Fold:
Amino acid sequence: MPQQGTAVAIEGLEVGYGRTPVLDGIDLAIEPGSFVALLGASGCGKTTLLRSIAGFIEPRAGRILIGGRDVTGTGPERRGTAMMFQSYALWPHMSVARNIGYGLKLRGWPRADIARRVDEILALVEMSGFGGRSVTTLSGGQRQRVALGRALAVHPPVLLLDEPLSNLDAKIRLTMRHEIRALQRRIGFTAIHVTHDQEEAMVMADRLVILEAGRIVQDGRPEDVYRRPNSPTVASFLGADNVIEAEARRDGTDLVLILAGGIRARIAGTPSVEGPCLLHFRANAVTLAAREGRGDCLAIPGRIEQSSYPGGRYRYQVGTPVGRFFVDDAYRLDDGATVTIAIPAPSLHVFARPLPGVPATRAA
Ligand SMILES: Nc1ncnc2c1ncn2[C@@H]1O[C@H](COP(=O)(O)OP(=O)(O)OP(=O)(O)O)[C@@H](O)[C@H]1O
Structure:
């Protein structure tokens, strides 16, 4: 659980490569013992931010403080951070034990203390008995456990995770997520995790920080960000990528949504927005009814164009007068069937439609 204070503070950070600016004024304070996931579209600057915290990249402006100490000009090895990479980055010519003890040896630990610590770490990452093995004889999951052990051996207050699970197969990946999270809770270090995988970020982190074009655009608890994305980009990024253009009119406390083809809905208690808007919804947040949807929902008539079964629920592509959408449903329906997409009001993310060149925001 997060504790009081600040483990990592980033103030006005600006980073660029050559003339190209990449991070544009990042401010972020991270509590000790918290697990933060940095998420965002490819190229938004997640890895650059992580590598700046690690000390591999020199910022153009701003400061980085770790445990209250300004480390902006300090080398990576003196920052109190350790990093775990996607590529494992293990020494292939060294045994598992020597890989894990490597950082301790660099720090001048006596041999007996290194051996004791390596044994502790092997037990921690469930690799006891593997100390003498060459890392080249290990599976991907075992290598990543060794990489985690090596990072944790030096007792870093802050662990930086650069997509460490993305090379692993799906099953090992799920196990490792839980193992890293459990260890982080038990030992209490602060973790900052870069990932492309939204679900991985949601299940591992206490806090999501979403970046877009080098800026933080949303920051909060995973369920809050997921339920209340503050822009169309964040909504789409977190899976609400079915989009409808509409016109919103306020009527008392209700919102009347007017769509093309004469489709209308009256919705209570949604954010106040007037005029042109975008409605985002997730495939798994709706039902397909054979009749008109009722109650506080938007009902859109359509026809099933294509179907597939990814497992658990059916996935349908539905053609409607206001666009083509993906929708999940528990029931098997035939291609060509007439349906109604019923989108409950709480599952509709309503944003003012941006004017050209102006970013959209969620209506307050
Ligand atoms: N060494 C470099 N030299 C020049 N440009 C770079 C360098 N590293 C990254 N960039 C550029 O900086 C931007 C941000 O890159 P970064 O790797 O931080 O993004 P990211 O969000 O981690 O992306 P991804 O999710 O694809 O890994 C990109 O436009 C990238 O092309």
About this structure: Helices lie at 46-54, 96-106, 111-124, 140-153, 170-187, 198-204, 222-227, 232-237. The pocket of adenosine-5'-triphosphate is lined by residues 17, 22, 40, 42-48, 196 (CB under 6 Å). The chain has two domains: 8-232, 239-352.
